[in-house]
Amino acid sequence: MEEGKAYSPDGVFAHLEMLEARAHEAAVKQEETKQQEEKLARLKARVQELRLQRDELRAKVDLQQKGQLGKGGVMSDPAQPSARAVLEWKIKSVKAMLQVFYLTGISGKLTKRGVCFCISTAYKGTYLDSYYLDLLAKPEVQIHRHSIPIFIPLEQIAKKYLQTDIRRFLSVLSDHLNAYAGRRYQADQLQERFSDQIEGTLQRNSLCNLLVFNYNVSSKSKTFPFNVRLLYGDLCCSLPTEVIVSCTPDAPASLAETAAAHSDLFRRVALHEAFRSFSSAEENVDGAS
Question: What is d(CA 135, CA 146) in angstroms, rounded to the nearest whole number?
Answer without folding.
Answer: 9
